[in-house]
Design goal:
The chain is of the alpha/beta class. It contains twelve helices and twelve strands. The chain has two domains: 241 residues, 3-Layer(aba) Sandwich (Aspartate Aminotransferase, domain 2), CATH 3.40.640.10; 123 residues, Aspartate Aminotransferase, domain 1 (Alpha-Beta Complex). α3 runs parallel beside α8 and α9 runs parallel beside α12. The radius of gyration is 21 Å and the shape is globular.
């Protein structure tokens, strides 16, 4: 699904040089590499503050803690996403409230958002899934009208931009009150271990995020808040800084591969290629299709038999997972998410895909449907 070795070979010398510098200086925590990455991330996203942390799950938790969410508050997100989004809501004693997604984009359906807002609602977490972002004009308008906070889960779509109604562009992750991301190795911008970050334009929120991230402390052994220990080490920061300089090139390679898939699969009966929202750039963390003839699992087996990896994200919507049964949801509550869970399948997508590989993959997919 992801060729991290091939990508590494393209930056191997630079990585080794950076690692040796860190090892020789022993600047393992909060060293120059971390400060450099923070500055470069802020510049790339055109945001005032980029605050690294240990991983993307921590980033969401830290965001909710920095926003002073209290047990019993409701946090709205979607059931068609990776579990981390809802997991931290539950861990903090908050209540996850789900809203369905759009069938075409897989992202939060803003037209259904107001119907789930109550007097206990505190925060909305739109998830920018598979490399394409949500309709942030609609979401921010509702949030501002209802006095709610917005935390963008941008773990899969860093580098994508949102075009608002006036035609201006803003990076996803820099629109809500706080943006979060994951630098898990398989992400478009991936470390060589766990890593994450938060983004904000709000000075007070940036200070609170920094406080929470460092045990609730701004001065050693003095604690002003309940916090966590969530730091990004310098070795991971160095890798990310090198890759950030190449992120636009990596995205272009992914978009080229996606265009190849589109051109060869768009007319296949029983198969729907990914839709593009008019307001969002698609950076293709995943190339996720919908199999509409009821034979998704058979297609996956067919691909496996021809040595082609594929993945199903996500086979069980969160509201139907046993861990979230206590929140009272049932089958049929979110029909689009449930339909997608039965239909979606993702093909290999990474920066090193060659035309001969893409030709073979699409040939085998078409053979199945023919």
């Amino acid at each position: 699904m992801v060729d991290l070795i091939g990508q590494y070979k393209g930056i191997e010398d630079d990585v080794m040089t950076a690692f040796k510098e860190i090892l020789n200086s022993a600047s393992f925590i909060n060293g120059p590499a971390v400060k450099s990455l923070s500055a470069n991330l802020a510049s790339y996203l055109n945001v005032s503050h980029a605050l690294p942390c240990a991983n993307g799950t921590d980033a969401i938790q830290i965001a909710l803690m920095a926003l002073n969410c209290k047990p019993g508050d409701e946090v709205i997100t979607t059931p068609f996403t990776f579990v981390a989004t809802a997991e931290v809501i539950a861990l903090l004693g908050l209540k996850p409230v789900f809203v369905d997604v759009e069938y075409g984009t897989y992202n939060m359906d803003a037209t259904k958002l107001e119907s789930v807002i109550t007097n206990k609602s505190h925060t909305i977490i739109p998830v920018h899934l598979f490399g394409q972002g949500c309709d942030m004009d609609a979401i921010m308008s509702i949030a501002n009208d209802k006095n709610l906070k917005v935390v963008e889960d941008n773990a899969q779509s860093i580098g994508s931009s949102f075009t608002n109604q006036s035609g201006s562009q803003t990076a996803y992750g820099a629109i809500g009150h706080i943006g979060t991301t994951s630098f898990y190795p398989a992400k478009n911008l991936g470390a060589y271990g766990d890593a994450g970050a938060l983004f904000t334009n709000d000075e007070a929120l940036a200070a609170q995020i920094q406080l929470v991230t460092n045990h609730g402390s701004n001065r050693r052994y003095y604690y002003d808040a309940i916090g966590v220990n969530s730091r990004l080490d310098s070795l991971q920061a160095a890798v990310l800084d090198l890759k950030l300089a190449k992120l636009d090139m990596y995205i272009a390679n992914r978009q080229k591969a996606a265009a190849f898939y589109d051109n060869n699969l768009a007319e296949v009966e029983g198969l729907l290629v990914p839709e593009r929202a008019s307001y969002s750039e698609h950076v293709f963390h995943q190339y996720t299709m919908r199999v509409t003839n009821g034979k998704r699992d058979e297609l996956k087996e067919h691909l496996t038999n021809h040595q082609i990896p594929s993945m199903i994200y996500y086979p069980v919507p969160l509201h139907l997972s046993s861990a979230y049964a206590k929140y009272g949801y049932a089958k049929g509550d979110f029909p689009v998410s449930e339909k997608l869970a039965d239909e979606v399948i993702s093909l290999p997508m990474h920066t090193e895909l060659e035309d001969d590989q893409l030709s073979y993959i699409t040939k085998i997919v078409k053979e199945f449907f023919n």
